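Problem: given the chain below (434 residues), write out its structure.
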Amino acid sequence: MNRYETYKDSGIPWLGEVPEHWEVKRLRFTVNLNPVKSELDIPEDTLVSFVPMEAVNFDKNLTLTEERNLDEVYKGYTYFKNGDVVLAKITPCFENGKSAIAQNLTNGIAFGTTELHVLRSQDSINNHFLYYLIKSDSFMKIGESEMYGAGGQKRVPEKFIKNFLIGLPPYCEQTAIAHYLDTKLGEIDALIDKQQTLLEKLAEQRTAVITHAVTKGLNPAAPMKNSGVEWLGDVPALWDVKKFKHLCKIITGYTPSKNNDENYDENGFLWVKPDNLNDFKEISDTKEKISVVGLKSNYLIPKDSILVCSIGTIGKMGVAMQDVITNQQINSFIFNELVNKSFSKYLIYSAKGIFEHMANDNVVRILNSNTQKNIFSPLPPLVEQAKIADYLDQETVKIDRLCETINQTIGRLKEYRTALITQAVTGKIKVTDE
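Solution.
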């Protein structure tokens, strides 16, 4: 990539040299931050766009699906209009890069979450160039270090944005840089999308391989019989079909009182919550530990049990690598001698679809243990279970390696994307109209 002919010291350690003809300014001299809604002079019943935080995306755009009357949102919400740049100020939305350029707003006006900063370009700065400035690695990292507040309530202050120093090229050059980044990032994003599609196809392949082996076996010539269960269909003739209650105990976890310090002990048992689960994740450590004080023995889940999220994200699963305790969102499957331990995780994985199907449709989806106990499951002979588990261990490792390679590629593309933005808006590469 080309560099500019001459550079000068910006006087800012993190920015370093900038092109000779660029100015160095604080953002306060190029933008109006959080403009006041009192500037509006329109009827109270004017329809405007309404923008909650989930409508602020990561790709410059807003998802505009809600509208409200002005008098409903005038008090208590953040005002902005077409052309403004909006930036999430609260953790983790800021660190995740939630920001956008307001476009196509209803009557040109929007009101949204109070957790937004609004940056309105003055004549000296192009709003698309401004957008990329706040997406640069420098702005994001320094902004994160300047956040104040506690825990999940940390926010980026106005003062940081106003005093942030930038290299400012002439307006026509800003336009060229923004157009260049639009084009190049579009190409990078298309590559990332292709990699994501590959991951989705591999996930589908993984599910298909596991489900077929668990429900149909490894011998395509084996005689089959009707299982009498809709989701299973035909199964090998020598297999049994049994309800889960005949194969395992299913234990629902619990959450001990936070008011009793004795319940939480760093030397206690691992306390597993849904965030600890994922497909086949081996649970060998957790942030929080639970003591045995006042603990009923049936809440202690033994090693090798399969842990399944049954409230919220139905079907997330993990394997206990030691004795654990789970919270009330998790049902633990403790299999008996009829089921091979290595086979058990694949058996549960193959049932994920039926778990999701049988969960209720409340605001928070729930699948209780009694429902799970009465779900039918295929049961091959133990020797065949071991063979299926060995086969699936080999096949899933192959798929997981491919997924790991693809994730590494996606990671490198995202790093390159961030680096390209930073290099372009700080003048480390030369961008021209061509």
